[in-house]
Amino acid sequence: MGPGTGTVRQPGAAERTRSVIPDIPYIRGRSGGEQRATFFELYFDLVYVFAVTRISHHLLADLSWIGAAQAAFFLVAVYWAWNYTTWMANWFDPETVPVRLVLIYVMLASFLMAVAIPEGSVDLAPLFAASYTALQIGRNTFVVWVTPPGAFNENFRQILAWSVLSAPLWVVGGILSGEPRWLLWVAALALDLAAPLARFWVPRAGPTPMSQWEVEGSHFAERFQLFVIIALGESIVLAGVTASDAGLRGSVVVTLGFAFLTSTALWWLYFGQVAGSVARRISRSAADESGQIGRDVYTYLHLPIIAGIVLTAVGVELVIVHPGGELHTAGALVTLGGPALYLLGLMACAARIGHRPSWPQMAAVVVLLAAVPLAAHVYGLLVLIVLTVGLIALVVVDQIRPQLADPPPHQ
Fold this sequence. Notes:
By secondary structure, this protein is mostly helical. The chain has 14 helices and no strands.
């Protein structure tokens, strides 16, 4: 880095490259100790509890292939907004006033975006598109503005360029309706999803080097683990509210109990071994590898985990409303397909850090998907009981097998 760029922090011995993170007042201190999520970051996450709830309600209102596709679209967009902000907050200190003000701005835009997720006939697409683009461009503009010229600043200029590139598709799509809207929005989201894979390539500058995507492993892992907690918490809230509305008769109370055990089993499967293994691996990796693992495991491979929780929550709500009724095909798909997608996400995360696949979990995915046609014509409560028992069995197997050995980082 040349003169006038500000000093840079020296990396630890495990890192082969110099840190490009500028030494400015808004950057988190890197004294070598573990960073933890701040109370403001926990407050920030509350908006996304509401957002995930809105997505669940959208799917419940239209339990069809089109409704599922739209719910998936909104979930990815919401997760992408949270994900980009988490990357930014891994470097910038929310305890400083300017950073906190920017996060409040992002929080407000996220809240408006969540409110605009359709439920019923109300169309707030312009608000959704405007809120999404405003938070993405505004947050990245702040980073470019406050950081001195240099590699870090140049990286965020390229990130900002990709946000600006997709913005017209979002905004125009929000103004249009029907098929043209969705064509533009899918194209916009595809651009946003492709950006990290392309390493924010722009003409002349090229891609951003992976060695410059340095993350603080413990804080970064904790933030994404907390998003899993957000999704699981929303599933418990949804189950509780639905049970209250349905009336707490005996069958509903029994269903609610199994819904709680299902959520707990999902929590245990994630935090039993996989979450800790990924966190340790990213903390022990060199700067270039930690950024790549962070991108692959958290930015992309956590999406099926979150989606699986949301689908499971929707399936459980259907069972709570009609515990003695048949699920039908759509209900069976979300009730059993949700846990299957969740398990696939767990296995993908484990595989990315070099662990061998869990054969019991692979077998469970096959059984869950194969059982959908049968489950469509069985009482919902019975399906939920069998599902819960199966997930608990996977938890037991996960606990009794040897602790996963962490593969060594690449040298």
